[in-house]
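> @MW can you paste both from yesterday?
MW: sure, first one:
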Amino acid sequence: MSKGPRRPVAFPLDEADFAEAGPGTYAGRPKVFPTPDPYPLPTPIEAPVARKKAPWLTLLMSGVSGLILLALGIAVDNLLRALFARTDWLGWIGVALAVAAVLAVIALAAREILGIFRLRRIEHIHAAALEAATTDDRKGARAVGKELIALYINRPETARGRAALAGHSAEIIDGRDLITLAETELLLPLDEIARRLVLSSAKRVSVVTAVSPRALVDVLFVVAEVTRLIRKLAMLYGGRPGTLGFLRLTRHVLGHLAITGGMAAGDSLVQQLVGHGIAAKLSARLGEGVVNGLLTARVGIAAIEVCRPFPFVAGRPPRIGDVMAEIAKAVKKTEDAETE
């Protein structure tokens, strides 16, 4: 006579034996058998790793640069020999000019290298401050606060903030609070100056492009104003980039705009203009000036976030709405002046 089905039994899992074999009749402690999943997860497919390319472009640029330097050196040598062959004093004048040129090249190269190092230092401080604020790391926050003090050690206007940060850093326990204190004492005053710089550039672009008769003049003026604004903001926050450093900084700003969608000047700007009732009050030409000013303001806001040594923790990041009303007011004054 066959046995009937086994009655269900409740038992704690720590009293059960886990087995790999199939089900059967067991005595003693209950047995738990794994049930195979009929729908296993697919095996993850990793992206293929790109093979390292041969540095042919780097080799080409190095070779061409070396040949140009050799040709320049030979040309200078031939010129000095010709000057000495003509008369000694002309030769020595040529030597003095060559030495001055070499010293100038060395000084320019040193300035560019220092500018790049300053930008990298600010990037390092920004990343460390973000990490300390996110993880509430007191030790990391104190270290990054000292780096911020050292960055502004030669700025007289930051003396009070540096003293306050150095005096209270040992009394604060939380790392995020230390980051907040450093931002409040040292960066918020600079943020106010940065906002005024962005507003001034945006208003200037709006007015000039609104009254300018040529599109080429508009483009050249906007490019020049944006370039000047990025350099001013970098110097305000302690960057002071050279030419190569400025190009690197500009690339980072444009990359930040691409990531945040800041260059979307189409629907979003039109919605902002309509929402503030500005589009109905301006002509098409003056409305174009407002749009150019808003684009300049967006580039300035992105430059602030890139050049700032700390992320925005206690302070409020600037927004495009902060400058929209002022830009519209400036353009409206221009329209009224032209009407009169």
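MW: second:
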Amino acid sequence: MEYVTVRGVDVPALGFGTWPMKGETCRTAVGTALEHGYRHVDTAQMYENEAAVGRAIAESAVPREDVFLVTKLLSGNLARDDVLRTTRESLDRLDTDYIDLLLIHSPSRSVPIEESIGAMNRLQADGVVDHIGVSNFSVPQLEAAMDASETPILTNQVEYHPFTSQSDLLEFCLDHGVVLTAYTPVARGRVVGNETLEGIGERYGKTAAQVALRWLVQQEMVAAIPKASTPEHVEENIDVFDFELAPEEMERIFDLQGGLVRRLRTRLGL
């Protein structure tokens, strides 16, 4: 496993996404993921699977302290008292004393960011949340969250894959020490059959999905959280740390999204 290290925090570069799995399917998948070496598990109040995730972690041979556990506040739970109450409820469902990373699932149109972040900072002070972050935030929204927080915003979790550019956000994250966590990193399966990705994969004996994931985790300050419900895909997705894409191959994949702005390509050494 590789890590994204920021502000002294080691975030496993490849995590396990759990949307939209529930119940026994989710519990089994998370258990299988932990067996295969995943140490970063992502869930959310909205997913209604926190209890299944918690059971899988509790039943695993992997110690709780070795799992980087992430959950997200439902968008309707961002008022101060709701943040405090529902996070405690998440802790109960997850059967854990603390959450490694608590995120705002998406920006609120009614609750000031200062109120939500202030409550999350309170949970950090109480010792039940280690780190906080956001999801689906634009650059201005991320800036506002950073300004509102007494502690660093560790990540912004957004859709990012070879067909969707996040160049402005990634540049901001590079400048400010924020991890960009990529969800739907294989574009809901659309990477399969792509000629560029398949062609690059042939050189390394890898699938298009593995190439897409390697492209993500090879970028500075980027982590990815693919979802997989079958043991075969669970194992395939994590098998991306025994090869490295050449700069030319990285650039060819960037070209699938119309190309990055020049300043970011330069920064990434492309």
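> thanks! The radius of gyration is 18 Å.
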